[in-house]
Every structure is written in structure tokens, then in C-alpha cells.
Amino acid sequence: MKAIIKERNEGKTLELIKIAAEQGLYIIVRNQEMAYYTRELAEKKGFQILFPITYSEFDRKAYYGKNIKGFLFDDLDAYIQMRSPNVRIFAFTASNESIDFPKSEPVFFATNLKNMNF
Description:
By secondary structure, the chain is mainly α. About 30% of the residues lie in helices and about 10% in strands.
């Protein structure tokens, strides 16, 4: 599993589009509007991808399961937060065996936790 961690509007979705086009994977996005946006961005950049699946379609397993190679999650943090909309999620963990962090890019951004109310 690869983690793509960057600020907003720095090309995370485009990186997923490139992977999706190369490997024939579905991108999972927040809603139908983002599905159309992602498909249009792919076409604009010259990539051909499968039509993205929304978070709710993914939750309901409303996709044809046969021959699916895998999924790419766009904005996984938003997906996790949607599961707990009234309580902010401050952190997550992952096994380093399951995530491929690029060694040349910073992954974690330090935050002053003293001033945060948990």
C-alpha cells in the first residue's frame, strides 16, 4: 500500500489517476460530483480510467466485484471522519509493512499537541 500525503491542491488525486490508469484500479471518491471531476481531470491530462466509485457505493459494495484488481482511496482522512461526524479524529496508525512511504518526501507534519483539547 502506498501513502500519498501532501497539502490540498498539490496533486494527490492526479497521482491516483496515474496509478489507476497504469494498473486498471478504481478510485474511491467522496461523492458523485468528485467522481465526475476525477474522470474529467483524467481525460484532460490524457489518462483513461474506470469511472470512480463513491464512498457510499464502496460501503454498500455497490460495484461489480468480479475482475476488480484493487482500489485507490482519495482523501481517506475524509472517509474516516465521515464515520464519526460529530467527533474530530486526531490521528491514525498503520503498520509500516502495509504502507510504502516515499523516503524523499516528508510524511508526518508535527503539531503542537499541548494546545489541543483531547
